[in-house]
Structures are given as C-alpha cells and as structure tokens.
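Good morning C.,

I know you're traveling, so I'll keep this short. The sequence:
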Amino acid sequence: MNQERVSIVITTQNRSELLQRALKSVIDQTYKNLEIIVVDDCSTDNTADVVKEFQKTDARIIYVKNDKVFGSNASRNKGIKAAVGEFIAGLDDDDEFLPQRIELLLENYDAEYAFITTNNELIFDNTGWCTNMPSEVSLEQMLSENIVMNQGLIEKKRIEAVGYYDENLTACQDYDLWMRLVIAYGGAKALQTVTQKVYMEESRTRISSCSHKKFSGYFGFYKRYKHLMTKSDRKIHFHRIYDIRNKPISPLVSLILCKPSEARQKFDYYVKMKAQEQRERIGYKFLVDTLPKIENLPLDAEVMLYGYGTVGKFLYNRIGLRVIAVIDQGLLEKGENMMGDIPVIRMDEIKKFKDCPIIITPCLNRETIMKNIKDTGAQNPLITLYDDSEV
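The tokens, ready to paste straight into the viewer:
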C-alpha cells in the first residue's frame, strides 16, 4: 500500500486515565500517516485536559466534544464523518494497539475482503489469552458469533455505503456493522498475529453498556439477521439472550444451546461444580452420571449411539465424540436411513461395527435394550447413561 491516511477514531466518556494509555498506543504506531480523532461523549472529568496535553506534542490529534450524551454509536459516526483518511480504524478508550498494528493491517489489506483485522490479546484481571480467528471469516461464521470482535481497518467509503453504525441499536453495534459489511463486500480477512490488547474487566463501564439496554439491542440484532441463521446459530443466540436476561437455565439446556467450542469446558465445569441445589435436576444428574463414563474416551473416539433424541444430539454435536452409526428404530420408521454421512441402522446390524462402544442414551427400558443388544451376539462395550425413571 502507498502512504494512505488512516483515521483512528477513539470514543470516550469519563475515563481519562484509561484514555491516556489508548492515545499513547496510537501515537507509538510505526505507521505515521495517521489522523487521531477523539470524540468525547460529554465527559465531566478531566478528559479535555488530558487530550490537550497530548495535542501539545502531537498535532495529529483532533478533539471533538459532544454538548450532550449521544452514546457510542452516534459518537463513532461523528468521528468517522469528520475523518479525512481513506481508512478508518477504531479503538476503544480502555484498549490499546501494539506498535505495528496499523502498518501490518495496511501491508496486508486486500479489497477482495470487506475489511481486515487481526487476533487480539484478551486481558481479564491481569490474565491474558489470545483469540484464534481463522484467516478468512465468512458470513456463515459471523452468523453464530462476532468472531472479529470490536475493531478492524475499513475503507471509509464502505462504512458510508452501508450506513455507518446504527444509532438506534443499543447493543451489538460492532457486530451489526461487520454483518452489513460482510454481506455487502464478502468475508473479512484476519491476520494470525496479535496487534491489539482488549481489556475485559467487567467493572469498567463502557459508553454503551447500560444493562437495561443490552437485551433490547441484542434481541434487535437477532431479529435483523435470524432469517440468515441456521437452527444451530439461533440456539447459540438464544443462549446469549438467556444470559443477558439472567434467566434460570438448566445445565443440560445451557450445553445444548451454547457455542460448540465452549461445550466441553462447560461440561467439565458443571460436573465439578456439584452444587447441592442442582443435584436432583435432570440436566445436572445427566452430566454427573455421563462424564465419568465417557471421559476416558478420546474426543475423536468412534462410537455408536442408541437413540438420537435430545441427549444423543447433545453428545454428537457438543461433546465431540465421533459417531459412526445410530441405532434408532423411530428414525428408520420415518424412512430416515442416514443422518448426513452417518448411517441409521437396525439392531441386527450392530455386528458390522465390531468392538465399537455403544452409548445407550436415556430411556425407560434400558435393561431390555441391553438384553436385546446382547441377544444379537454383538460383543460391543456398552456405556449406559442414567435411566429417566431414576429422576
């Protein structure tokens, strides 16, 4: 890329101490053709004085103060509209860029993608871990979660073309803009290096973080894009909506609805938790009874499932077991002989899969099923889960 001007837009409100770190990280960028726009959403602290002090040594800094509180969406849009750079790169006032962020983003920019971003270091209570985005982020991946998180490098004219940040949306502002950009211009490009630190402390209040608005914004986002979502995507979003509203949810339902990559960790957590008040719940009893029986199986172990109801689907989709066949008379009666590439088989076909463990999912006639399997002459190991009649 040539020496394009990049406009860095920082929105802030009453967090002058954190803003200093963010500003310093932009000033220290190895790429110097920058315009730094600070939009102050009517702060009542010493934010103006902090910015003026930085302006004494860096003429690239532009300070804009709202005369009343407009919120993050309107503040970001105000900064973008005032920008003269060909590219926009946002930064939250409590986060920071690593020195080569802008240089790397520009060097690797490809107009075939909607925008470009990188992995982030997420820091929570002084503990950090790095995101692991794919190098190309598709619309299909974005429909289940905001993989690219909160910032990227975007052509200003593209933000203008898709209508800026939605000022009526009270949550998911970044997510919504990324969705519109990806729909209009194709997937996002993600460099596999870390160039930004994102601080996740819950005690910090963001401009847009009023709890009573979070549900409304998130649900508005969900309604806007649910027509593009798969059934699995919708389940993941429903799980988040439950979390936002602090609705009680059983461990089993939580696992069925959660993001697949989080399921194993949640599974282990619920079993180890062993909260007294949870012990008699069906979902918790299932978890406590199940993990000891399958935890010694490798995550890629080949198994068969007897029954493909709620629990069978959970084991297949969430725990990561490699299901090579399903024994389910109900599916056969419906004429469903395959589930994708997985065959649905009769009891007398079990011997075709010699020595493959059979997981018998919850049922009322477990003993009869076990006897019927043994009557076929199959020698497969049987792993039985809890009996519904025990709950």
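Safe travels,
E.
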